[in-house]
Amino acid sequence: MLLKNISYFACLIAISHVTSAKFRVIREWNYVNFTWPSITSYSDALQQQKYIPENVIMAGLKDFEGFYYVTMPRMKSGVPATLTRISSGISANDTAPLFTPFPSWQMNELGNCEALQNVQNVEIDVFKGQIWIIDGGRTETLGTDPDIKCKPKLVIYDLRKEENVLSYTFPENVASFNGSFLYDIVLDNTDDGYAYISDNSGRDPGIIVFSLKERHSWKIRHSQSMRADPKASYFRVNDVTITASLNIASLALGPRIKSSEGNVILDDDREVFYAPLSSLHLYSISTSVLRNQEVAFHDGEYQGNVTDYGTKSSQTVGMLMDNKGMLYYSLLASNSIARWDSSTPFQTGQKIIAKDDRYLEWVNAFAFDGQGNLTILVNRLNRFIYDKFNLSEVNFRLIASNVGGKSYLYDERYNYHSENGTQSTNSITTSTEKPQNPLKPGTDQDPYLAPAVPDPTAEPSSESTITQSKSSSAPLSCLSIMVLFIVNLGVLFTNC
Ligand SMILES: *[C@@H]1O[C@H](CO)[C@@H](O)[C@H](O)[C@H]1NC(C)=O
Ligand SMILES: *[C@@H]1O[C@H](CO)[C@@H](O)[C@H](O)[C@H]1NC(C)=O
Ligand SMILES: *[C@@H]1O[C@H](CO)[C@@H](O)[C@H](O)[C@H]1NC(C)=O
Ligand SMILES: *[C@@H]1O[C@H](CO)[C@@H](O)[C@H](O)[C@H]1NC(C)=O
Ligand SMILES: *[C@@H]1O[C@H](CO)[C@@H](O)[C@H](O)[C@H]1NC(C)=O
Ligand SMILES: *[C@@H]1O[C@H](CO)[C@@H](O)[C@H](O)[C@H]1NC(C)=O
Ligand SMILES: *[C@@H]1O[C@H](CO)[C@@H](O)[C@H](O)[C@H]1NC(C)=O
Fold this sequence. Notes:
Elements: E1 24-29, H1 39-47, E2 61-64, E3 67-71, E4 83-87, E5 100-101, E6 119-125, E7 130-135, E8 153-158, E9 163-169, E10 182-188, E11 194-199, E12 206-211, E13 216-220, H2 223-226, E14 234-237, E15 240-243, E16 248-253, E17 257-260, E18 263-266, E19 271-276, E20 281-286, H3 287-291, E21 307-311, E22 319-321, E23 326-331, E24 336-341, H4 346-349, E25 350-355, E26 363-368, E27 373-378, H5 381-384, E28 396-402, H6 424-427, H7 462-472
The structure holds 2-acetamido-2-deoxy-beta-D-glucopyranose (7 copies).
């Protein structure tokens, strides 16, 4: 009852135009539970409501040296730890492992501003073995009365030496004490290291730049591209209606290595890709603009141009780019995952690589390991925000596939030529490629996950797909009564 041992792996329906991305469920949980120090500490936490299972949501994901690092933002009360890890890899007989607070229980202590308070995402410098943790400070952000005791900060922790490297508190004009919402982070190793962090704030959204060398941060604003598009503030995910104006959320960093007319170019001026959650557009801004502090002077707006690539078919919350410029991102309203080779035009180059109404309900995060495996975290945030979690059902899943890419972080040591043969399928998509037949659930599994005993009840059946799509085409009756006064991803979504 406590831990579910599941002896099957369900295979998702995947439609791929390039390589056949086969996604399989590798972990699944009804709710989050932890490796408590003792039975007493567990029962005390339950009794004192320091642990409320239905209030804990998994949000961010990274995969590094044998562990999945999973964040649990304190959007509601009763979240005992905000950064955790579990072992990654094929330890398949426990598919619902307990989460271990990371680096320790103490470093996750609620109300202690030295400790981690509210972590939405992390990034790991794979060469130095250091995890960069963005801590929004405020907790219970989904409630009417968020707790604003601690300031937003950035913490760097060395995973190999097991020690803190840095704790940096953002100044008020960069990440405001009670108005900011640090959402996502990408790392750029140029010039001793920069982090680009999205501030999903309702009042003052932007991209925060942190220079490790200078221990200094600033914020670049561009309202036209970083604020929500009112026309894209309303959408449905299965039978849940999302009515929200949400600003810039996920980020992806483009590779340093570029291929242009057959030549390989090394270029430190990279692109940071971003999209407001409430928007159909994908934008990018170059890192040379972000790194130029003068652009941020006087808390002003960037006056130059950003790149607008055009539109996607739905809103996006999770995204990740590999080291060859292949972008993976969620399409929330269609329960799908898309991929775009950034060397092709956006409008014609986007491909849906997996779609499933049941298994891909709110794809929130993506992570690469170093071996070409892409893991996807599905968290049903659409239900969580409306208190509709049913603890008798699976609410969280990790779904993985070997897509043959590596994180954008591997750009420096990536030898473009050495992989020319094995990776050629990834480089170009042409119109002659035909979509493959959808995979048959339960039969088409990658060999590396065993045991693979299909369980009929776990497979996405065509019936469930039909039922779901019926409900998602139901009349949009909420429109007439919706309220739009949304501030950010923590304080969001009006009910209707
Ligand atoms: C949570 O995990 C602990 C072990 O750390 C276990 O004793 C407890 O029964 C679990 N609770 C639930 C509700 O799964
Ligand atoms: C990742 O991919 C490699 C093959 O490239 C495979 O051997 C390994 O088992 C995969 N790991 C997981 C967790 O799927
Ligand atoms: C799971 O695998 C581990 C290591 O292979 C083994 O020690 C353990 O007994 C297994 N658990 C179950 C429930 O099969
Ligand atoms: C929070 O923000 C409001 C403006 O919206 C401001 O008046 C107030 O002083 C802020 N509180 C703190 C503690 O900074
Ligand atoms: C931005 O784009 C506009 C319209 O394309 C152009 O007129 C203007 O010169 C550009 N500004 C900069 C700074 O490149
Ligand atoms: C919760 O899920 C279980 C299993 O799917 C179902 O039997 C039950 O009716 C659900 N409860 C609610 C309140 O929807
Ligand atoms: C490309 O791959 C082929 C076969 O795998 C190899 O013979 C060739 O040397 C490679 N080219 C480069 C530039 O590495």
